[in-house]
């Protein structure tokens, strides 16, 4: 049986386990990408968000067979980029991080939004983050952080 | 791969489907919630024939593995479908979830399926034996029961290009994003030379399948708006009589009240 080959944060990897396994579990257990959090396992919380071929997906709802040939980016890879630095700075400025559990997903949802729409309105930011639940912040600080990143990181997206 | 087959073309997918026991997998957003370990998935996300949106003279044809995000970005997809699809879950789910999966899951809560019912959509089903085109309401035999043979795949959804311009759509959910429909309603209205030509009413998430009563819709067809107004209360009463709703996350009584309110709002939007 051929293993499932894909790119993880720029490195080529192969997975010999079941095609029915969840991407979420494989990222955490096999590749130690612990930024990818498990909140609900049913696509309702966004804590396990990753970028798959540049598109935001919930890794709990992706079977490994669908990952064949794909490019997966988790926060471990994304944190090496200038875009991440702009988002990290903006999140820090307004204290948008409390317990932190939702933040890897929030940051990748922010990236997915800004990549498509570099100058979003507040409503568009709320829509872009609408699949990511946060139980600490009440969301406003996170929404402000994305607006700041769009402004101060102008040109990066 | 272990426990999975993947296909690069529709022909290859159909051969596998005909010869092996596989579960078709498009976006995975419903399947992975169940997370069955004892199945072999047939991964369809890379089958080009299932990933296109095209149009002919009569229909917009949406491939079964087209995602909701792709449909929102297509100029071919009718506004009514876009309005419903835009309210499905949240961006990450819309990036993965597909039209074929929404149908194949067999739920009356599927938001794109409601629009297919009210639009008189057709489905193109294919197998190594050939293909057949069925009406969406005939495809749904009951809850989780579909007219899909073991060797068939859903290939395309055909939505009429014309006639969906005047509509009313409401989704009632427990929250804005990531909401599973508690009750959904779509109505399509048409008139010509002062007479009503179309009054399609579909109710989602309130019974085993999406509900549509063509004989009741016919009460208003051919009438002027004034005549339809005179008939309005009888029309609503006929729906109240006919609708046998099930209890779900919310009570059957609540469902019925909301359905009738939405039906009335649809009529009033178009001056009836």
What's the helix and strand layout?
The complex is a heterodimer of chains A (157) and B (272).
Chain A: E1 4-8, E2 11-15, H1 23-29, E3 49-52, E4 55-58, E5 71-73, H2 75-78, H3 82-93, H4 103-116, H5 122-128, H6 140-152
Helix pairs in contact in A: 3-6
Chain B: E1 4-6, H1 10-19, E2 23-25, H2 31-34, E3 41-43, E4 53-55, E5 59-63, H3 68-72, H4 79-85, H5 91-96, H6 99-104, H7 111-118, E6 122-127, E7 130-135, H8 136-139, E8 140-142, E9 145-146, E10 153-160, E11 167-172, E12 183-192, E13 195-204, H9 214-217, H10 225-242, H11 252-269
Parallel strand pairs in B: 1-3, 2-3
Antiparallel strand pairs in B: 4-5, 5-10, 6-7, 6-10, 8-9, 11-12, 12-13
Explain the overall architecture.
The complex is a heterodimer of chains A (157) and B (272). Chain A is α+β, with helices and mostly antiparallel strands and 157 residues long. Chain A has 6 helices and 5 strands, in the order E-E-H-E-E-E-H-H-H-H-H. Chain A has helices at 23-29, 75-78, 82-93, 103-116, 122-128, 140-152; strands at residues 4-8, 11-15, 49-52, 55-58, 71-73. Chain A has a 5-stranded mixed β-sheet with strand order 2-1-5-3-4. In chain A, a hairpin with a 2-residue loop joins strand 3 and strand 4 (55-58). The longest helix of chain A has 14 residues, at 103-116. Chain A is globular and about 50 Å long. Chain A starts with a strand and ends in a 5-residue tail after the last helix. The mean pLDDT of chain A is 97. With 272 residues, chain B is of the alpha+beta class. Helix content of chain B is 33%, strand content 25%. In chain B, the strands form 4 sheets. A 5-stranded antiparallel β-sheet of chain B has the order 4-5-10-6-7. A 3-stranded parallel β-sheet of chain B has the order 1-3-2, with helices on one face. A 3-stranded antiparallel β-sheet of chain B has the order 11-12-13, sandwiched between helices. In chain B, helix 4 (79-85) runs antiparallel to helix 7 (111-118) and helix 10 packs antiparallel against helix 11. Chain B is globular. The termini of chain B are far apart. The model of chain B has no long low-confidence stretch (mean pLDDT 96). The A-B interface holds A 1-4, 16-20, 22, 41-44, 46, 49, 55-58, 60-66, 68-69, 109, 112-113, 127-128, 130-132 and B 1-6, 25, 27-29, 31-33, 35-37, 39-41, 43, 45-46, 69, 89-93, 95-96, 176-178.
């Amino acid at each position: 049986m051929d293993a499932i080959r894909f790119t993880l944060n720029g490195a080529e990897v192969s997975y010999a386990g079941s095609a029915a396994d969840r991407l979420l579990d494989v990222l955490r257990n096999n590749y130690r990408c612990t930024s990818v959090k498990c909140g609900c396992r049913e696509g309702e919380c966004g804590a396990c968000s990753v970028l798959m071929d540049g598109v935001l997906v919930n890794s709990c709802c992706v079977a490994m067979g669908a990952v064949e040939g794909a490019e997966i980016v988790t926060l471990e890879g994304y944190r090496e980029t200038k875009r991440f630095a702009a988002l990290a700075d903006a999140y820090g400025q307004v204290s948008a991080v409390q317990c932190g559990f939702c933040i890897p997903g929030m940051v990748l949802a922010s990236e997915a939004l800004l990549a498509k729409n570099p100058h979003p309105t507040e409503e568009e930011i709320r829509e872009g983050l609408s699949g990511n639940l946060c139980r600490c912040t009440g969301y406003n600080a996170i929404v402000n952080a994305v607006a700041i990143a769009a402004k101060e990181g102008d040109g990066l997206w | 791969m272990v426990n999975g087959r993947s296909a690069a073309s529709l022909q290859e997918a159909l051969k596998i489907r005909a010869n092996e026991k596989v579960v078709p997998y498009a976006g995975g957003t419903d399947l992975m919630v169940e997370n069955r370990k004892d199945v072999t998935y047939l991964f369809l996300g890379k089958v080009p024939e299932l990933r296109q949106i095209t149009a002919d003279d009569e229909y917009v044809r949406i491939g079964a593995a087209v995602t909701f995000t792709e449909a929102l970005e297509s100029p071919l997809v009718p506004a009514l479908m876009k309005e419903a699809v835009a309210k499905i879950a949240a961006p990450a789910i819309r990036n993965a979830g597909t039209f074929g999966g929404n149908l194949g899951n067999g739920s009356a809560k599927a938001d794109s399926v409601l629009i297919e019912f009210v639009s008189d959509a057709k489905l193109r089903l294919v197998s190594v034996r050939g293909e057949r085109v069925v009406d969406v309401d005939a495809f749904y035999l009951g809850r989780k029961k579909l007219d899909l043979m073991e060797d068939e795949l859903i290939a395309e959804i055909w939505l009429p290009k014309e006639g969906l311009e005047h509509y009313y759509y409401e989704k009632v959910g427990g929250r804005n994003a990531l909401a599973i429909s508690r009750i959904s309603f779509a109505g399509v209205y048409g008139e010509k030379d002062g007479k009503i030509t179309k009054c399609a009413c579909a109710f989602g998430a309130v019974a085993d399948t999406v509900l549509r009563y063509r004989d009741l819709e016919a009460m208003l067809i051919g009438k002027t708006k004034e005549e339809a107004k005179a008939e309005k209360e009888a029309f609503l009463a006929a729906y109240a009589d006919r609708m046998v709703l099930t209890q779900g996350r919310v009570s059957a009584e609540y469902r019925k009240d909301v359905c009738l309110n939405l039906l009335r709002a649809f009529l009033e939007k178009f001056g009836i």
